[in-house]
Amino acid sequence: MSATTLDSLLSLYTVRLHDGRNGRTRIRNIMADTPKAAKEMVFAMPGESVTAKLADPLSTSFARLLLRKKASQKDLKAFYSNLYAAIRIDDSFTEALYYSLITIKGASLRNGILRTRNAMREVSPDQAFSNLKGVIPDEHLESLIAGYNSGAIIKVVEHLSASVEKQSKVMRKIISACIQPAIVIVMAVATSLAMSIMVIPKIVGTLVGFGGEIPLLTKLMVQFGTTVQAHPWEAGIIGLLPILLLTQSSKIIETKPVQFALQRLPGIGEIFFKASMGGALTTMGLLLESGVTTQEALVMVSKVGKHAAVRKFFSRLDTSLVQGRDFLESAAQYAGLLGKEGAGFIALLKMGRDKGDMGNIVSRLGAEYLDDVDVKTETIEKFINPLAMLIAGGVVLVVVLALILPMANLYTNIL
After folding, report:
1. Sign of the CA dihedral running 161, 285, 351, 274
2. What is the CA 186 to chain-centroid distance, rounded?
3. How wide is the angle at C-alpha 393 spanned by C-alphas 392 and 394, nearest 5°?
4. CA-CA distance, 86 to 390, in Å (whole number)?
5. How do strand 11-19 and strand 48-54 relate by DSSP bridges?
6. What is the model's pTM?
7. How far is Cα of residue 393 from the mean position of the Cα atoms in its chain?
8. In whole angstroms, what is the distance from residue 263 CA to residue 39 CA?
9. Which is the most buried residue in 4, 82, 171, 360, by most CB within 10 A?
């Protein structure tokens, strides 16, 4: 069953775990498609009885509204980490799937895992894994299927766990580098807005009473505050716009104008390219080591790359393979799309093919790209923080001047 269909069937259940020995009751709210599934998703202690009751329709509708269809990076990390630990203890993959539910919060992922586990007893692995389609990334799903069919599932899960951990670490660093500067700038803008509404108009009123001249900068600040007061809803929407853009950043960053702008920013463009290239190569290496064919791996990688040049490179490689051309010759032909990184990349690919270990070489190359992103992000962070302070200082300077100039005029008039 597809993830979309599953999401539409999920309901909110109140699961009660009652311990008859001491009378204690634990309550959990679980999104599931059946009461049985809801009960299977909680881990009862010895002596606890478990019952599941459908919640009221309003609560269910609200829970569906907040439901994430795709698994979060945090849940993916927990899933692969738990699954790897469980497989090493018990080589039964179906039982390992059940124990991987521990610490996973996302309802879609929890239900997808449970349905996959139950389906594996009745249908083929490919059909069972289809319950995770649309919930986990397609390249992860293909790797799990290939690894399970080839008997290399432990290695695949280990690679997935390490890959997600690596990418999460890089993303955390990038987000961390942006949060503090953003907070400083927001606080500076909020302060200037408060001054424009509550303080500067009073000073202007006093100045007008004495017949003083109002400076242009002060007039603009007063007009700014007046406009915000006259249109509070519109101002609120504009204030929330950066947050909305941030939530859609993964889609916005793939647009050509944004990518064009990023490439022109010193350091940022290189980080963006290497992060995309590292993710694409890590994915390709994982797929190849899982037993997926080179052509299937290229199709998948051409879809997951965030950078337009990276997607174009792998897409053209795929087209060349379909036409029966040599892989390395095609890669060398399109290496120009990768800029200065192209030549070194082709050399390493040739080394991998000569050694018959293409998957491992590609994975290691992807890891090197991500390590480089890690280092460069720290460098950019040192540059961003002073820049943010400079911007915030500029905003504060404007407010201070808007206050001081009319006071200076007032002092002049009194004298």
Report:
1. negative
2. 23
3. 90
4. 51
5. antiparallel
6. 0.64
7. 31
8. 51
9. 82
* One-letter amino acid of 10: L
The residue among 377, 366, 173 whose CA lies nearest residue 278 is 366
25 phi and psi angles, rounded to 5 deg: -130, 130
Q: What is the dihedral of CA 126, 132, 136, 137, to 10 degrees?
A: 40
- CA 109 and chain centroid, separation: 16
b/e string for 325-348 if b means 16 or more Cβ within 10 A?
Answer: eebeebbbebbebbeebbeebbeb
Q: Torsion angle of alpha carbons 380, 383, 385, 391, nearest 10°?
A: -130
Backbone region of residue 256 per phi and psi (left: phi > 0; alpha: psi in -120 to 50; beta: other values): alpha
pLDDT in tens, the chain (415 residues): 444 444 456 778 888 888 878 888 888 777 777 888 888 777 778 888 888 888 877 777 777 666 667 778 888 888 888 888 888 887 678 888 888 877 787 778 888 888 888 888 788 888 888 888 888 888 788 888 887 887 778 888 888 888 788 777 776 766 666 677 777 777 877 888 788 788 778 777 777 666 667 778 878 888 888 888 888 788 778 777 766 666 666 566 666 676 666 666 666 777 777 777 887 788 788 777 777 777 777 777 776 666 777 778 888 888 887 788 887 788 888 888 777 777 777 777 777 777 767 777 777 887 788 788 777 777 777 777 777 788 888 888 888 888 787 777 767 766 5
3-state secondary structure the chain: CCHHHHHHHCEEEEEEEEECCCCCEEEEEEEECCHHHHHHCCCCCCCEEEEEEECCHHHHHHHHHCCCCCCCHHHHHHHHHHHHHHHHHCCCHHHHHHHCCCCCCCHHHHHHHHHHHHHCCCCCHHHHHHHHECCECHHHHHHHHHHHHHCCHHHHHHHHHHHHHHHHHHHHHHHHHHHHHHHHHHHHHHHHHHHHHHCHHHHHHHHHHCCCCCCHHHHHHHHHHHHHHHCHHHHHHHHHHHHHHHHCHHHHCCCHHHHHHHHHCCCHHHHHHHHHHHHHHHHHHHHHHCCCCHHHHHHHHHHHCCCHHHHHHHHHHHHHHHCCCCHHHHHHHCHHHHHHHHHHHHHHHHHHHHHCCHHHHHHHHHHHHHHHHHHHHHHHHHHHHHHHHHHHHHHHHHHHHHHHHHHHHHHHHHC
Closest residue by Cα to residue 335 from 326, 346, 325: 346
